[in-house]
């Protein structure tokens, strides 16, 4: 029996029937493999997923530094979405940076019984008086949807009163099956009210960076490289982002997409509305960074830009070559398992390859089939009740701002050479025999780790200690364990250094758990025997 069979064998027939569709062993050959994804977790299974509010407020909206985001709900949701993600930001043009604040209506029992609208009005008023932000966003948590507070009406009223945009997001935690629904809701809101609403006109070699959240400073490092190549970055969505910059998103000639899962909706809607093409990039790993830069230059087809790109790649590669080689000698031949949200389990495989580390298991928490199977997989995704629960908005070409950069012939030609308007997915890049797991749960994590014995398990705070206490090195790919940046050329060296330090300091492997030598349970019988 293979590892998949051995792990799933312990399930009851019903659970087995469900989970077997979410686990694949990569097969050789070109036959596309299908995986079940973006479906409900079976009740009772310990999943590592988050909620819709986490995806909307925590992931997409919170990094926008010049917007004050108010969590309408009991304080716990606000607290747990406060600073737990390392999306760093510097004050913007107006000198403001709300990223480090946690604004919440702190709903109490009386508000649940009698309604929380009064409190929300008051919270918006205080936000205006204390912070005077250029824009306010309100995000709902579960009870708000249950009791029916009309946050959209209150936002419209406040907008009128305070003469500034106030947007509301109905992103109650229970909507959809994971945080992925929240990404979609946030994308819809930004598209409706923010993106491309400015008055600027197209700028040469201007780009938007989509799906880059500046975790550990990644976005800053990517921005540094892009500027050196000669690009003008109009806006970043949304790491260290600014709503004012996003309003000018239509002035870009190209959109580059780092995290496909969280923002593919915007990439496609910007294409429909403004005609802006998008390409899939990956700035994690030195070779993939170089490839992404080359793809971008090829899109523009400008010789000066192509030459400058090559010069930047040569210079940056040269700078990191000795360190990369050193860490490669220390890490070559090691194996890794990766389990992260919806894109990093793919992106980081490229960086691991730079050090000769093999990925033997990879999985996403909440990705959809196209993130595994590639854009082709999207064609036969069937809508279910949960996905229909998330609004899909329709956008139309903007009569004034719509502009196609390429002729249809140029587009078709480039499509064969660069990832234009398409994403190839994770499965495509995995080795034969590697295991791919969707929504890897706590039980399966423990079992797969015991069976496959990777040298490193890359995951997050919820699952990290299970591995670590089992003697397997664990590094967090969400927060980078407070290190970083890991993106680009220099980031790759930081990553190599951190992993090398971890591997050669196998502290947890030296610990003998107390139950190995001391009985853990001591007790007496109570009552009459
Ligand atoms: Fe995209 Fe992200 Fe990810 Fe994601 Fe996330 Fe994140 Fe992530 Mo944590 S947007 S899908 S919802 S790359 S917070 S910056 S690390 S799970 S793999």
Tertiary shape? globular
SSE-based structural type: alpha/beta
Q: Helix content range of the residues, please? A: 40-55%
- The proportion of strand residues reads 5-15%
Spans of 5+ residues with little confidence (pLDDT < 50)?
Answer: none
Give the N-to-C terminal Cα separation. 47 Å
Mean pLDDT: 95
Main β sheet profile: 6 strands, mixed
Bound small molecules, which ones? FE-MO-S cluster
Subunit arrangement of the protein: single chain
Number of strands: 14
Helices, by number, come to: 21
Kindly report the spatial arrangement of strands forming the biggest sheet: 1-12-11-10-13-14
Radius of gyration: 24 Å
Explain the layout of strands and helices.
Blueprint: H1 3-8, H2 13-19, E1 23-25, H3 52-61, E2 67-72, H4 75-80, E3 103-104, H5 109-114, H6 117-131, E4 135-140, H7 142-147, H8 151-162, E5 166-169, H9 180-193, E6 206-212, H10 218-229, E7 232-238, H11 243-246, E8 254-257, H12 260-274, E9 277-280, H13 286-300, H14 303-331, E10 335-340, H15 344-354, E11 358-364, H16 369-373, H17 385-388, H18 408-415, E12 435-438, H19 442-452, E13 456-459, H20 461-469, E14 473-476, H21 488-503
Parallel strand pairs: 2-3, 2-4, 4-5, 6-7, 6-8, 8-9, 10-11, 10-13, 11-12, 13-14
Antiparallel strand pairs: 1-12
Question: Notable features of this structure?
Answer:
globular; alpha/beta; single chain; 4-stranded parallel sheet; binds FE-MO-S cluster
């Amino acid at each position: 029996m293979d590892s998949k069979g051995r792990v799933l064998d312990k399930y009851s027939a019903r659970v087995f029937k469900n989970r077997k569709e979410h686990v694949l062993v990569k097969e050789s050959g070109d036959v596309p493999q299908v995986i079940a994804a973006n479906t409900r977790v079976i009740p009772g299974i310990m999943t590592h997923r988050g909620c819709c509010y986490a995806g909307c407020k925590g992931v997409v909206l919170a990094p926008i530094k010049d917007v004050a985001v108010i969590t309408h709900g009991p304080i716990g949701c606000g607290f747990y979405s406060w600073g737990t993600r390392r999306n760093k930001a510097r004050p913007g043009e107006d000198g403001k940076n709300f990223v480090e604040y946690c604004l919440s209506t702190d709903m109490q029992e009386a508000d649940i019984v009698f309604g929380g609208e009064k409190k929300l009005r008051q919270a918006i008023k205080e936000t205006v008086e204390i912070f005077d932000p250029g824009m306010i966003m309100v995000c709902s948590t579960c009870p708000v949807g249950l009791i029916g507070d009309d946050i959209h009406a209150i936002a419209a009223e406040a907008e009128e009163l305070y003469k500034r945009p106030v947007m509301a997001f109905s992103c109650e935690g229970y909507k959809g099956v994971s945080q992925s629904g929240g990404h979609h809701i946030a994308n819809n809101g930004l598209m409706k009210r923010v993106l491309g609403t400015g008055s600027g006109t197209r700028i040469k070699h201007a780009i938007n960076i989509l799906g880059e959240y500046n975790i550990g400073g990644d976005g800053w490092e990517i921005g540094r490289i892009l500027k050196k190549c000669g690009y003008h970055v109009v806006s970043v969505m949304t790491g260290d982002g600014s709503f004012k910059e996003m309003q000018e998103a239509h002035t870009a000639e190209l959109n580059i997409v780092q995290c496909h899962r969280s923002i593919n909706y915007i990439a496609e809607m910007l294409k429909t509305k403004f005609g802006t093409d998008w390409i899939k990039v990956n700035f994690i790993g030195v070779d993939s960074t170089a490839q992404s830069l080359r793809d971008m230059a090829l899109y523009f087809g400008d010789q000066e830009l192509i030459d400058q790109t090559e010069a930047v790649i040569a210079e940056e590669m040269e700078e990191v070559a000795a360190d990369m080689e050193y860490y490669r000698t220390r890490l070559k031949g090691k194996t890794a398992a990766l389990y992260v949200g919806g894109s990093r389990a793919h992106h980081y495989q490229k960086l691991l390859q730079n050090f000769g580390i093999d990925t033997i298991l990879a999985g996403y928490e909440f990705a959809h089939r196209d993130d595994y199977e590639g854009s082709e997989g999207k064609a036969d995704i069937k809508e279910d009740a949960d996905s229909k629960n998330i609004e899909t908005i329709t956008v139309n070409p903007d009569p004034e701002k719509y502009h196609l950069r390429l002729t249809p012939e140029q587009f078709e030609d480039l499509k064969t050479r660069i990832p234009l308007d398409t994403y190839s997915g994770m499965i495509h890049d995995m080795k034969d025999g590697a295991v791919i797991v969707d929504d890897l749960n706590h039980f399966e994590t423990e079992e797969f780790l015991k069976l496959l014995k990777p040298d490193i398990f890359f995951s997050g705070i919820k699952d990290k200690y299970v591995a670590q206490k089992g003697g397997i090195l664990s590094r967090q790919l969400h927060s980078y364990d407070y290190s970083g940046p890991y993106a680009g050329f220099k980031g790759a060296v930081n990553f190599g250094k951190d992993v090398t330090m971890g591997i050669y300091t196998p502290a947890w492997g030296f610990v003998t758990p107390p139950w190995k030598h001391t009985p853990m349970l001591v007790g007496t019988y109570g009552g009459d025997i």
